[in-house]
Amino acid sequence: MRLAVGDRLSILWGSEQGPRLSAQVVAARPLPPDPVVVALRDLRSEVRALGRERAPQGADWLSVEEVASRLGRHVVTVRADLRSGRLPGVRVGRSWRVRAADLDALLGEKQRQQASRREHVKRIAAANEAQAARARAARAKRQGR
Questions:
Q1: How deeply is 66 buried, as exposed, middle or buried, from its count of CB atoms within 10 A (0-12, 13-18, 19+)?
Q2: How far apart are CA 39 and CA 34, in angstroms?
Q3: Average pLDDT of 120-133?
Q4: Distance, CA of 84 to CA of 80 (rounded, Å)
Q5: In this predicted model, what pLDDT tens digit does every residue of 92-107 receive, in sequence order?
Q6: SS3 per-residue string spanning the chain
Q7: Residue 8, by phi and psi: left (phi above 0), alpha (psi -120 to 50) or beta?
Q8: Residue 43: pLDDT above 80?
Q9: Which of 104, 70, 72 minimizes the C-alpha distance to 88?
């Protein structure tokens, strides 16, 4: 509620016989700005400007959207990975940036893990096949073939 010069202000509380306060606005004068608030506002704008200047950009830095498309994941999942530290990145203001070399190293590591996993599956399949061949040979020997 804003008051102007000449407005009457009445405050009543309690019962009808209770206290009553009545006043009239004589002069409305704007309050000087709080120096702390002004200093914080200036500092906030300087930090924002500095963040824009120092924000990692260029071919070696990727946005969250670019990382998500390279990984084949949703943007929300990539942001969660960045927040948790599973994906290395830098927070710039409200956005994230990921170094392309870090992402390539991560993808290379995943490819090595997948290749290792494929080799492991092949070894297991070969061992299972060898065991099945030994079982067939033992069965054939028992049957006298």
A1: middle
A2: 9
A3: 93
A4: 6
A5: 888 899 998 888 888 8
A6: CCCCCCCEEEEECCCCCCCEEEEECCCCCCCCCCHHHHHHHHHHHHHHHHHHHHCCCCCCEEEHHHHHHHHCCCHHHHHHHHHHCCCCCEEECCEEEEEHHHHHHHHHHHHHHHHHHHHHHHHHHHHHHHHHHHHHHHHHHHHCC
A7: beta
A8: no
A9: 104
